[in-house]
Amino acid sequence: MNQKRFARTLPLFKEEGFSKLQNAKVLILGVGGVGGFALDCLYRTGIGEICIVDYDCFEPSNQNRQIGSFNGVGRKKVEVLADTYKGVIAIDSKVTQAFIDTFDFSPYDIVLDAIDDIEAKIALALKIASKSEDSDSIKPLLLSSMGSAKKLDPSQIQFAPIWKSYGDKFARKFREGLKKQNFKGNFMVAFSPEEPKCKELGSFSGVTASFGLRLASEAITIILNKE
Questions:
Q1: Closest residue by Cα to residue 38 from 227, 224, 225, 219
Q2: Residue-level pLDDT at 135
Q3: In terms of DSSP H, where are the helices of 2-102?
Q4: Within a 10 A sphere around the Cβ of 197, how many other Cβ atoms?
Q5: How many whole angstroms separate alpha carbon 175 and alpha carbon 4?
Q6: CB atoms within 10 A of CB 141
Q7: Checking DSSP bridges between strand 188-191 and strand 158-161, what pairing results, if any?
Q8: Which of 60, 183, 189, 224 is the most buried (most CB within 10 A)?
């Protein structure tokens, strides 16, 4: 462990708490405007193992909100971020039904869902957040990001069970999809009831980054409270 790197972290979390962070494993699905900032926070805080999954390349239009986009245009996001955040495990893949069906989620304590494909989000929830009669099955906790685009006020971001999210069109579509699949589980989501400020797909880093930081902060709290 690099003592100097964590000199400002140890006084806050103490040895016991920091040891929990070092032993934790977190999977981040999607490292765009939300997932990239979640990665940055978790890495700086000292999470022992972080795996990132994304298939996309950085584009100039990402530069208003995505970490790595200034120097990485044309390159794979996971490749650029793995170069920056040494030790991070990078998987170049789109999160699809096939990926979710075959990927082993069991080693991870927490999965941060920062993808924007609702069908994939539904498949992920069904895989790792459904109620299971198999008591031996190992499932990580799922924390999911709802709609962060078209908004300007990060103070309106909330964190609640998916069924208690409100005022977020993306979350509503997500809930409707889960109901159609007869999903009986529950998981926590970051959402904002703020009214959209434009019709186009506009985005503001002050909000998208805050979504990622909120997810990371909640993940860290869960890890610290784990027995």
A1: 219
A2: 45
A3: 10-23, 35-45, 77-84, 97-102
A4: 13
A5: 45
A6: 19
A7: antiparallel
A8: 189
